[in-house]
Amino acid sequence: MADFYESQRAMRSMRKAALQRGVIAVLDVGTSKVACLVLRFDGPDHFKASDGVNAMAGQSAFRIVGAATTRSRGVRFGEIDAMPETERAIRTAVQGAQKMAQIRVDHVIVTISGGAPRSYGLAGQVDVEGGPVSEQDVASCMAACDVPDFGEGREVLHAHPVNFALDHRSGMGDPRGHRGSTLACDMHLLTVDSNTVASVIYCLKRCDLEVAGIASSSYVSGISSLVEDEQELGAACVDLGGGATGLSIFIKKHMIYSDSVRMGGDNITSDIAKGLQVSLATAERLKTLHGGVVATSIDDRDRIALGGAETGDWDRDQRTVSRAELIGIMRPRVEEILEEVRAQLDAAGFDHLPSQQIVLTGGSSQIPGLDHLAPRILGQQVRIGRPLRVSGLPEKATGAAFASAVGLCLFAAHPQDEWWDFEIPADRYPARSLRRAVKWFKDNW
């Protein structure tokens, strides 16, 4: 934990340095595509220190000056599978964005959509020694949280303080400056597989890029797709990606739960390819142009040509399929994904939130008829979400498939405060730590 704490602090420092130079890149490495956006910040005062323990903030003064996407290769289930293939895809996307922006970027903030994320709720409490609550008191309270034994091979990706209580006055967003005797804190901890994180960092280093931050794809998708009232009252964001489906639950503008399903749009494409005996490229085209999940009477008569696209011989290869058959292949897989999401929502206690709004985003959320099928499985309050509009974003990148990339821009410009944004108390360092000795010397001399 201490090692990752220090590495996250180093990433935060690199992000701050990059923002002070006025430019940084964000990279969404997904199973179906790799998207890179280059952000330019206006004026010398674009980066300001936090005035509080922030929830998700609004858009800062930045503009997207470069954007590029390419087909993702070597990524399965949101995790890197073939390093050289992924490296080439990342280089292609980054070089395209740099060429459009006419500037070189060295620091990137990247998303992780795989890694088997797990959520934990932590609680800590400390006594305040008179006077108003200081930043050191907040840091001590966070450090007092009992971190569970999440096992070997796991690393902490996010550690958000979601609630503070001062002398049983709960619901405080920022306790600093208030007076009381007992300070309590509730935190949300998100861990992922350490090998997944290490693979992403190593791949970016091979591309001559420095990692200035890592964020969960489902978290940043929620930032960009949920409106302010949904973030406040309670809502779930379901990011239907190519290789994985991410789930995040927000309340009081904080993420309180995250998980993922190792299925997505690529599974639907694979089902079509196997069911109709066509190539994956043809199956993707059929899904995009003719797919759906709700059949009508006219779909039995709507014939789709298959053969010529496979062989190039349009005269002799006359295979066709009805749209109803295509829907019959797609619908069971979509229902399976939504039922897995429903099971995770039930496990998270989503029914106990004041609002049960569910927002579907991601590229696979654009399947026709999904807005009619999803409410039958997930609940009545379901809508298809699109990411927020940010300055300079190309028109082609405003769809639901770019929810993670847009959310990563907002995360880069103004991230929510986390555990490592505060100075860890000396007594939380290892017994032989040099920093602990220096801290004791400063406090006592």
UniProtKB/TrEMBL annotation:
Give the record's GO CC terms. cell division site; cytoplasmic side of plasma membrane
GO biological process entries: FtsZ-dependent cytokinesis
Q: Cellular location of this protein?
A: Cell membrane
UniProt keywords, alphabetically: Cell cycle, Cell division, Cell membrane, Membrane
Predominant place of localization = membrane
One family from Pfam that matches here is FtsA
The protein's matches in InterPro entries, at most eight in alphabetical order, are given as:
ATPase_NBD (IPR043129), Cell_div_FtsA (IPR020823), FtsA/MreB (IPR050696), SHS2_FtsA (IPR003494)
Q: Which HAMAP family match?
A: FtsA
The task this protein performs is described as: Cell division protein that is involved in the assembly of the Z ring. May serve as a membrane anchor for the Z ring.
What does the similarity note say?
Answer: Belongs to the FtsA/MreB family.
Protein name listed in UniProt: Cell division protein FtsA
Where does this protein come from, organism-wise?
A: Palleronia pontilimi
- Taxonomic lineage of the native organism: Bacteria, Pseudomonadati, Pseudomonadota, Alphaproteobacteria, Rhodobacterales
